[in-house]
Amino acid sequence: MIPRYSRPEMVAIWTPESRFRIWFEIEAHALDAMAALGVVPVEAAQRVWEADRAAGAFDVARIDAIEAETKHDVIAFLTHVSERTGPEARFLHQGMTSSDVLDTCLAVQLSRAADLLIADVDALLAVLERRAFEHKRTPTIGRSHGIHAEPVTFGLKLAQAHAEFQRGRARLVTARAEIATCAISGAVGTFANIDPRVEAYVAEKMGLVPEPVSTQVIPRDRHAMFFAILGVIASSVERLAIEVRHLQRTEVLEAEEYFSPGQKGSSAMPHKRNPVLTENLTGLARLVRAAVTPAMENVALWHERDISHSSVERGIGPDATITLDFALARLTGVMDKLLVYPERMRKNLDRMGGLVHSQRVLLALTQAGVSREDAYRLVQRNAMKVWESDGALSLLDLLKADPEVTAALGPAEIEEKFDLDYHFRQVDTIFDRVFGRHG
Amino acid sequence: MIPRYSRPEMVAIWTPESRFRIWFEIEAHALDAMAALGVVPVEAAQRVWEADRAAGAFDVARIDAIEAETKHDVIAFLTHVSERTGPEARFLHQGMTSSDVLDTCLAVQLSRAADLLIADVDALLAVLERRAFEHKRTPTIGRSHGIHAEPVTFGLKLAQAHAEFQRGRARLVTARAEIATCAISGAVGTFANIDPRVEAYVAEKMGLVPEPVSTQVIPRDRHAMFFAILGVIASSVERLAIEVRHLQRTEVLEAEEYFSPGQKGSSAMPHKRNPVLTENLTGLARLVRAAVTPAMENVALWHERDISHSSVERGIGPDATITLDFALARLTGVMDKLLVYPERMRKNLDRMGGLVHSQRVLLALTQAGVSREDAYRLVQRNAMKVWESDGALSLLDLLKADPEVTAALGPAEIEEKFDLDYHFRQVDTIFDRVFGRHG
Amino acid sequence: MIPRYSRPEMVAIWTPESRFRIWFEIEAHALDAMAALGVVPVEAAQRVWEADRAAGAFDVARIDAIEAETKHDVIAFLTHVSERTGPEARFLHQGMTSSDVLDTCLAVQLSRAADLLIADVDALLAVLERRAFEHKRTPTIGRSHGIHAEPVTFGLKLAQAHAEFQRGRARLVTARAEIATCAISGAVGTFANIDPRVEAYVAEKMGLVPEPVSTQVIPRDRHAMFFAILGVIASSVERLAIEVRHLQRTEVLEAEEYFSPGQKGSSAMPHKRNPVLTENLTGLARLVRAAVTPAMENVALWHERDISHSSVERGIGPDATITLDFALARLTGVMDKLLVYPERMRKNLDRMGGLVHSQRVLLALTQAGVSREDAYRLVQRNAMKVWESDGALSLLDLLKADPEVTAALGPAEIEEKFDLDYHFRQVDTIFDRVFGRHG
Amino acid sequence: MIPRYSRPEMVAIWTPESRFRIWFEIEAHALDAMAALGVVPVEAAQRVWEADRAAGAFDVARIDAIEAETKHDVIAFLTHVSERTGPEARFLHQGMTSSDVLDTCLAVQLSRAADLLIADVDALLAVLERRAFEHKRTPTIGRSHGIHAEPVTFGLKLAQAHAEFQRGRARLVTARAEIATCAISGAVGTFANIDPRVEAYVAEKMGLVPEPVSTQVIPRDRHAMFFAILGVIASSVERLAIEVRHLQRTEVLEAEEYFSPGQKGSSAMPHKRNPVLTENLTGLARLVRAAVTPAMENVALWHERDISHSSVERGIGPDATITLDFALARLTGVMDKLLVYPERMRKNLDRMGGLVHSQRVLLALTQAGVSREDAYRLVQRNAMKVWESDGALSLLDLLKADPEVTAALGPAEIEEKFDLDYHFRQVDTIFDRVFGRHG
């Protein structure tokens, strides 16, 4: 967890206080369920809740001190609960094993983290939708291989990002479902000393579903899937961030991160306005992805469990969720305030002397009966001249002066192929697909 | 693709012949759709199909030769189709771009690969279910940290694996849906020169759905998700493989890979029977997982596309699917023929002098009014003696001789805590959860 | 950085105080060099050092507050230095760029981290050497595939680990050399506004060498190599940790992590003594390795630099070094106090009925003129009987009763092949190779 | 191994024929050593070499057929050697274990692969040096964050790449030394049945050094280091490839991959000239890096060995070396034939209205007594006007018209700060550092 790349709501999920609070709820709900089954006195369960209300927040330092002796975190916690509750606390945790508490707690924490991430994506989607409609008809050049291809609109670029984050949202919902399970099944998952109805009760109270079969621990393929999904979403963040970085390049400059008054781009070069937020997002994406492989390596625990996953999760649990939360929020801010320069987009679009229309001419030649190979050759020989002139020559002019071309197409036919709006006839169709509306 | 870790059906998906066949179908179906829309002559579309039927398989070497000159694979393919079709071929690919063919083809290949993997998992699930019921009541020791914990049954271990691969199956269905999209949207995804209805028609014919918004290419977050899921399933393969490897250790030997007549375990040591198949699976899991990060790095293509993803996918596309297919089939074979030794399981279970029952005694003491801390101390001091005797002493005997223990529990009460069947009372419940039945 | 897996000396390298102190030294040494070159007044350089001595530790909160406005960390720092120094501070940083300070600082931090890691490995090597000699002649079974193979000594196992960490140490020295470079070369590395002699001076003062050619930043292939080496060493940690975990398994129990009084192995099962430290190390190894791929993804910065590496390094810089430092120290502690059980090793070694000697018999038969194929068959048929008896039968007895065997070898010859010491004749040779001595 | 990304010399290292030839040499040299020690008849050793010379190439299909039965590759090979040699073959492999052959063979293969890679880097270095000197004084804009910073020369960019691949070369030499070891130490590495002098002899004959302590296998930290180094070099390939991709962008177009006659950039857009080779290299870098984590996961083999590493190495051994060899050669070709456009570089450099000189003015103001903060403000306010004019205004003109500026600096002083050559005064120094010469 890097403080400067953290937001308080996500950080709060991972504090010791938060963890102990969840542990307590799991234990206390389990005790209620045991009391209802007649396994423990109802009064003990009531007393545990009352003592907690009276005592308030947990004393993290005290629990740490006990753990320093026992070298076991759950025992330390229970000892502390016992200190503030009295003898009734001895009924807590009966028939349970530490992992019942730890794994169910992790499920609660990751579920809450997923909820925040889903909300983050929703905020991003709202911004992307607004700006996509704002620029639905703003022409800009589409680029493949970094080279001008054919016209698109800036709104289409944002629609693509919207569709990608819609998928990201659906994946986060899947991720949440993957890890939102509760295991209260005892030392090796047999419910030897605890009734499965306790698990069902705690699951419901904590907003989870029971794990069908656990083995002291909840199986880690679930967590691997969770972090893999975070890695995919981080990669989508990276994609949009890199788009902005490209657009802000000096020679392109079609869009720019908002540059606040007082901000300094460089200690040495006062003229600099750098896309530092999106560069930062590129790096944060690498950090989130770094959680994926360790999470997968965690799956193959030995027999009914080993504890090698634990240190990994102490790292990647907070790190990956906090970093992705921050990255999504930062990306939302960038896209919300992004400075967009339609004039510059148009200037870039036109700088190639009309080369971006070459395909339409090619198709028209083919439809006029020229073989595909010949048509390609005719267009390419004129296109190459324009290319080599760095846009000083005009493809339209050259084509109209090429007798092999004019043998197949009249001047008006050729000119018609250079119409920009032609390319945008299906923008509404695509917006309908992505947003369910186009106006 | 490593031949010895390959199966023919999956390999067939990735041959040049297979790829060219799919390309042809995409192009020819697109031509049909264009003909239906009146864009091209119906006769041209018909001729293309007829010429293909007449010509049969594609001449891969010829296409390669053309590509060596043009340095463009789709143009080389179309040139070859033109050679075997005649002038009508010029109508093919109109308004399309290479990626329309390549990406839709990859979607078909990955979908078919997913279908095979789903079938693989189904076969594995069937074997796991059969063997889980076979050993539903076979007692064996549950181990956490590699140390004896409490009794489970071997069937429960297999039920856990079954539940994990049920999740794997569901994830593969998700993976298939993620990548089963078709893009026929032209050079930058605007449908500038092709009607969206062509895309819809080809999608349906090829068993796909249209990509809502493409940008010359289908967005690579889809493929990242696909390969991430393969990585998670490979990790589950690794988990079960490592379980078998542990069980086959000389000192444990509770189960063993089938050892065929004529097989030699070691060139130097004739007595060896090694778990080489599951060790191999452990390595194969690493190979499949190796595809995950490159697939995620592929997401952030520049602008409307760059082609950096292509070489990665030429590698991981076949490699990860072929390897996982092989691994799942090998694991199914291992589990199908696994030699299981219930007597040895029982012998191991008993070797700890009854220590595995310590928790039940602990709970009984607590319920008899002893404080949790005291109960823990009482059990531990006797348990440690048994531990240090390496199972020569009996925990039951020691407890019955410990006055602090017998002050709380009578001999019959203590003995009752050493009943093995007690641990298996919920096996039916768990089987119901996993298999929807317990008998 | 996970507090429970951190040690103070390594943490200290990465505090804001430490970073600002290094920044100051770089700037102030650079100013001295500029003063010596006559570029700035000597008095200014002197004043900067004096003011710092007078002011003491940096006010981190104040610097953070300035950065919140300027959004630039080095400018914020310089502003603060200016506040505590007076007008002479304006000569600082002349002709330099932020990265001159940041990258050189990172080089200092990583060099110091490397020094600590080298010291960690030295401590581990000392422990491994002591215990290797302690158990130089302690017989134990060597295992391939988890199956008994032939006898080794426990000292040989430790000698192998020693040799591996010797390589690790050499790699850390390489890692240190890779990143111990200084760049004071200005905005794009041309020394346009700063004399290369300033770089040379600062390099020497900070214990670095000048970077031959920098581009505002020090090239990140250096850092990629650094973190890759950390990942390899973490993998060696994992290997030795897994060896201990295997040895501590209930059925093997040839060695055990030290179990301190008061420690509780399980909240539910008082008898448990789990290898939790080495399991933890297995997880920590995954965390350290997680830094490798992001570090490699950092290499391809755009043009003369982009800042995407920065957030990655804010994470992995402290995380990977702190975690590996902790892991090495923990492993040293584990190996130092490891409980080794020679009797149990011998018992395990003997449990296979002498199968571990099968190869020597095979060789003897071959040398007595039996074909390799026949010899293998003869040994295997007797070995399989012993195997199936689970060690109840003796290979020696069976061989002496096999007429095809005795036709080639006399009883004394056969018996001689079962001599344990025979296997240890080269232990001194190996110790000489590893330790440069064998006694 | 992807055929289109493969070169024959590297592929040849990994063929079955090549592997069996190395196996044979290891076995036959070992037999010579044993004969010299009097362990086996000298005639047997001679006969083995003679029979091989007579028989010629190995019959791979025959060996495969035997392996299909024995399920053991080395036994299958030895059986085949026996078939073509006669009874003397029974002396082969005595006291050895399969891994002695397999691991030593892999060491030979990886060493040879390293030699090819070193030669590849040498070829690349030669091209980079030639072109660096060609463009030593070709001015171009240096960019940080994709934004114009200050002038550099194109030769400096190439010098940086040269320095990076010099480091890569040194790392490859390290990688080669890491894996060039020979182990002929028997079933568990004790030399129980083989004299260490055999290992020494074979090592020398095969161009290796003896492994100090092996455990049936050569320790895999060596291979992890090898593949990690390949990953770092691949990342350097990616860096230079991305530089070319950026330079070839339509709006930048300062350099271009050579575009051969007959090449088609796009099936749909005849005007396209895409940086497909460097995009391809970007993807290949991801593939090579994908080998790093599996190689590290291979380190922690169980006890004296398990075979999980084997399948991984069957994949990454050929794949990573073949891909990196191809990538280095492709990059060399790209850089050799790269079309460089100095006029365009100059045009881009000048397009910012002189903003690239802003830092020098800032420094001059400071040296003229203006406080750093004021100087920054003065330069920034003029720079922002130029920035917003998109280069239509001139920074020089504005500064000369700013009374606060002219109060500190005279017109000639200001003009002098806009001298391009000023930035290149240290180019010779840097070339000396990188190439050991500057002319």
Topology (elements, then pairings):
The structure is a homotetramer of 439-residue chains.
Chain A: H1 8-13, H2 16-36, H3 42-55, H4 60-70, H5 73-85, H6 98-134, E1 139-144, E2 147-153, H7 154-179, E3 181-182, H8 196-205, E4 209-210, H9 221-248, E5 255-256, H10 276-289, H11 292-297, H12 308-337, E6 339-340, H13 342-350, H14 358-367, H15 372-388, H16 395-400, H17 403-406, H18 411-416, H19 427-435
Give the strand order, joined by hyphens, for the main sheet of chain A: 1-2
The gyration radius over C-alpha positions of chain A equals 30 Å
Superfamily (CATH H level) name of the largest domain in chain A: Fumarase/aspartase (Central domain)
Poorly predicted runs of chain A: none
Total of domains of chain A:
3
Number of helices of chain A: 19
Looking at the overall shape, the CATH architecture of the largest domain in chain A is Up-down Bundle
Overall morphology of chain A:
elongated
Distance between the termini of chain A: 42 Å
The structure class of chain A reads mainly alpha
Largest interface, C-beta within 8 A: A-B, 96 and 96 residues
Note the beta-strand portion of chain A: under 5%
Chain oligomer state: homotetramer
**Mean model confidence by pLDDT of chain A:** 94
Number of E-type strands of chain A: 6
Q: Under the CATH scheme, which class of the largest domain in chain A? A: Mainly Alpha
Helix content of chain A: 55-70%
Q: Which H/E pattern describes the elements of chain A?
A: HHHHHHEEHEHEHEHHHEHHHHHHH
Outline the biggest β-sheet of chain A.
2 strands, antiparallel
CATH fold assignment of the largest domain in chain A: Fumarase C, Chain A, domain 2
